[in-house]
Task: inverse folding
């Protein structure tokens, strides 16, 4: 019904103002956002309805297993629609983001102009202020042009968006230091162009010597190296099935401080905070001494290096391969103890079954359990506010009739495509 409504909306969208307000077509930002919102609302209503035991057709209500499978299939279809709407809304959001980044960039340039104008009262306007303002205009114009060229990928933020469609903390920190150093060098270039005497020019050139800016250069080199190394580490760990990664619908500012599941990450937070403090100190030093690269004290530079090492160690330590610890027959109250037979439910206990960021229904519905040669999709069991199956530590699936009696291997395949170890169980007639 939602798909038909979207197609009807697209067919009606031919007149003036057709894409304004609450249309559900996917070819305009308002329509993508509204279509996703309606799909999410419909899914949540459907899930809560099933969780309360309502909405089951009489044809499947007689059997607990049949009703569970029917509910799971219905929720999976609804979740797939939500995921598709979310993908379209995410693409539309990225398409709009480049304008917002351009506004932020020129807002910073305007704030710099205002700050220089206020501080110039009484002290007078200097060549250093002009050079700083021109450098900001050059950097702002470059970011705006680059953002326009990459407007479909988030504008100026495109270089700091990772392959998983999240903002990368390491890239954001490195990009901040690189932009700051470029701005500082442009300030010196502007002052050098306006210098009138050879003594002043020699002093400005001496301000670029390594002895003056060795602290800043070291921090920039380490930040860029960490950004490249983290990308390599994450990629290798994903390919080696030691880290589970799922793609996000769109990047968010909170990605800089959280892990993939949205929980605050100590390694990311401390890296961003320490880097921001050191960057603020360097900016103040540049404002006080615009004739040389900011001389970042070694104590502060070492603090940034320790923070970067902690962040890198956190990337090495995060994640892990999912593991099956045991497989037992699921027993309800009143059932007799018995071996596993075809048609019974089995409970798979372990860890890491739900990858970070895969708590949505469309991701959960992609989980598969291999029982011998049969692939069993894990059914979604709704409860108020979420799902009781599957969970990160326990999965419950039925043993299909196609499973041959005897010793069979059980293995879980997560939504990220990572396979667990195999556990052997006995299935009887």
Result:
């Amino acid at each position: 019904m939602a798909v038909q409504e979207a197609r009807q909306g697209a067919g009606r969208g031919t007149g003036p103002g057709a894409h304004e307000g609450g249309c559900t077509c996917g070819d305009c930002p308002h329509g993508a956002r509204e279509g996703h919102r309606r799909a999410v609302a419909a899914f949540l209503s459907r899930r809560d309805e099933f969780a309360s035991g309502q909405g089951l057709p009489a044809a499947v209500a007689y059997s607990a297993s049949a009703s569970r499978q029917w509910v799971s299939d219905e929720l999976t279809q609804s979740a797939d629609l939500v995921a598709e709407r979310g993908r379209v809304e995410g693409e539309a959001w990225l398409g709009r983001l480049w304008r917002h980044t351009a506004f932020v960039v020129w807002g910073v340039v305007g704030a710099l102009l205002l700050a220089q104008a206020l501080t110039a009262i009484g002290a007078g306007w200097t060549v250093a202020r002009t050079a700083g303002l021109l450098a900001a205009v050059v950097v702002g114009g470059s970011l705006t042009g680059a953002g326009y060229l990459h407007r479909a990928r988030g504008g100026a933020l495109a270089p700091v968006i990772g392959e998983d469609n999240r903002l990368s903390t390491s890239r954001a920190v490195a990009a901040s230091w690189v932009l700051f150093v470029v701005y500082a060098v442009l300030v010196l270039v502007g002052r050098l162009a306006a210098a009138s005497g050879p003594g002043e020019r020699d002093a400005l050139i001496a301000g670029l010597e390594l002895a003056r800016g060795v602290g800043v250069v070291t921090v920039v080199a380490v930040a860029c190296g960490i950004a490249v190394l983290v990308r390599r580490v994450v990629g290798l760990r994903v390919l080696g099935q030691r880290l589970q990664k799922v793609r996000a619908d769109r990047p968010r500012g909170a990605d800089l401080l959280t892990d993939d599941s949205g929980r605050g990450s100590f390694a990311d937070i401390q890296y961003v905070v320490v880097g921001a403090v050191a960057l603020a100190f360097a900016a103040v030093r540049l404002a006080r001494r615009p004739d040389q690269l900011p001389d970042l004290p070694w104590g502060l530079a070492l603090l940034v290096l320790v923070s970067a090492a902690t962040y890198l160690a956190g990337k090495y330590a995060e994640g892990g391969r999912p593991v099956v610890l045991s497989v037992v027959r699921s027993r309800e109250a009143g059932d007799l103890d018995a071996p596993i037979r075809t048609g019974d439910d089995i409970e798979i206990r372990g860890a890491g079954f739900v990858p970070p960021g895969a708590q949505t229904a469309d991701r959960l519905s992609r989980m598969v359990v291999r029982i011998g040669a049969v692939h069993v999709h894990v059914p979604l069991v709704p409860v108020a506010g979420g799902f009781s199956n599957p969970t990160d530590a326990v999965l419950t699936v039925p043993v299909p009739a196609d499973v041959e009696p005897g010793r069979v291997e059980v293995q879980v395949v997560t939504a990220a495509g990572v396979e667990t170890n195999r556990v052997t169980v006995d299935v009887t007639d």
Observations:
- Residues 64-119 form the longest helix (56 residues).
- The CA atoms of residues 370 and 411 lie 5 Å apart.
- The chain has eleven helices and ten strands.
- The longest strand covers residues 406-413.
